[in-house]
Amino acid sequence: MHDTHDTLDLRGLLARLPDPAALRDRCRGLAMLEAILGPDWGGRYYSFDSAWGDGQQMASMRDGEGDDWFMVFSDAGVYARGFDHTAPNAAPRLLPEVPDAFRAQTVEPAFGEEDGTPLATVCFWHGAGDEDGWQAPSAAPTGGVELFALPAAADPARAYLEWAEEYYEPEHAPDPAAVAHVLALRPLTAAVVAAIDPDVELDDLAEDIAEIGYPTA
Predict the structure, then answer these.
(1) From residue 201, how far is each of 39, 141, 144, 167 by CA, in Å?
(2) Could you tell me how far CA 127 lies from the centroid of its own chain?
(3) Interatomic CA distance for residues 185 and 213, integer angstroms
(4) DSSP 8-state class, residue 135
(5) Which has the closest alpha carbon to 213: 60, 50, 34?
(6) What span, in angstroms and rounded, lies between the C-alpha atoms of 141 and 41?
(7) Cα gap 153→151, rounded to integer Å
(8) Helices marked H in 3-123 — which ranges?
């Protein structure tokens, strides 16, 4: 499903991730593409809530098979946590090293827990204005790094197209230029939507556009 699935490790992931602002925009673009190609919210992989909490925005991925990730964007920076359901829960080893600024996210029930214990097989963060870049616990993750391969892809448009062709099997292949347009968070127009899925109208996406906070002009 994901490019670099069999080669991406934590060090490689942290090196490939764009800066927090660019990552947030990329996640918003992924969510918008999902809204266009997947009208059924429950069947989408990627989503974005631009008003998830007080001063917080949240990006997420759910594959419907028990794997997921969540990223919280706030004034403190970015906190990300992933869970591979086939790997041992590593939260007790990983989460104590997360900075206090992100402590609330480590115990957020919406991100999954079992018997009161948070679920995580990988986590990382980027403090606001942190010149050290992306950071992660010294304890090794037990899995889930590859789940972030698409938002960390060097060519996200190509990576998304390859993934979407397998997952959605669209009747009409999305136009690569239109996909790149959305991932660059350029204003959404009827022509761009039609180039991705001619069966979807721009007006159909009003609720998704508002939730994602995607620009239309």
Answers:
(1) 11, 42, 35, 21
(2) 18
(3) 10
(4) B
(5) 50
(6) 30
(7) 6
(8) 10-16, 20-37, 91-94, 103-106
| Residue 182 host element (H or E) | helix 176-183
- pLDDT of the residue at 7: 65
Which residues pair with residue 62 across a beta bridge? 68
**Pairing mode, strands 68-74 and 117-118:** unpaired
Successive 10-residue mean pLDDT values, the chain, 217 residues: 60 96 97 92 92 95 96 97 97 96 95 94 95 95 97 96 91 94 96 96 96 92
- 3-class DSSP state of 21: helix
pTM for the structure as a whole: 0.94
189's tokens: 């127009």
CA distance 16 to 101: 24
User: How many angstroms separate the CA atoms of 33 and 182, rounded?
Assistant: 7
Q: How far apart are CA 208 and CA 119, in angstroms?
A: 28
Question: For residues 110 and 152, is the Cβ–Cβ distance under 8 A?
Answer: no
